[in-house]
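Table S4 entry, Kazal-like domain-containing protein.
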Amino acid sequence: MDTNKNVCRKRIVDLENMAYCRCPRVYWPVCAKNNITYMNYCIMDCLDQDIRRYGPCIHYRRSGDSSDGFLGDK
């Protein structure tokens, strides 16, 4: 079972590896299949992730359910 701290860690971009990406530092968010919002497509691609959708990942919690979900998940 994931603790809240572990769940949050899963959603953090790898800043150490991002430093090696030659990408513009503009905010045009994209949601990757790993359910992390990246600053822009170039950074997401540089970190070898696949796109889920353009725009930030939208996290929600169902009433009475302790699991996280993401809009657009099937």
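The chain has three helices and five strands.
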